[in-house]
Description:
By secondary structure, the protein is of the alpha+beta class. The protein contains four helices and nine strands.
Amino acid sequence: xxxxxxxxxxxxxxxxxxxxxxxxxxxxxxxxxxxxxxxxxxxxxxxxxxxxxxxxxxxxxxxxxxxxxxxxxxxxxxxxxxxxxxxxxxxxxxxxxxxxxxxxxxxxxxxxxxxxxxxxxxxxxxxxxxxxxxxxxxxxxxxxxxxxxxxxxxx
Length: 155
């Protein structure tokens, strides 16, 4: 029942944030990644993308929420101005991917693909490019099956 209440609260907050997004000056606050093993998936993102844990708003035996941001240490990550990632417990009997793909800008696409694979993720397709947006991109999945899109600016 607690999981249902927390999920409902998250949905209401998402709607409120979408309504507030119409105002100038608002920014993306973060992305929620649902995971059957929140600690393992948080470790994947930390190792793969140089992120650090900044908080655990929920940390019980059955439900965890682990907030990460970019930075080599928690202190640096807490000061980051980028949007954070909240890893939240997903029941084992539900399917992954019930969220939009996490999109991360990386400085070296090939190096990031290698890091994803080295840390247990999988590559879904071959890298592509978009001449209009001037980016290279690739779709991958984290070890729990959540979609990740990596983009790199083309020069």
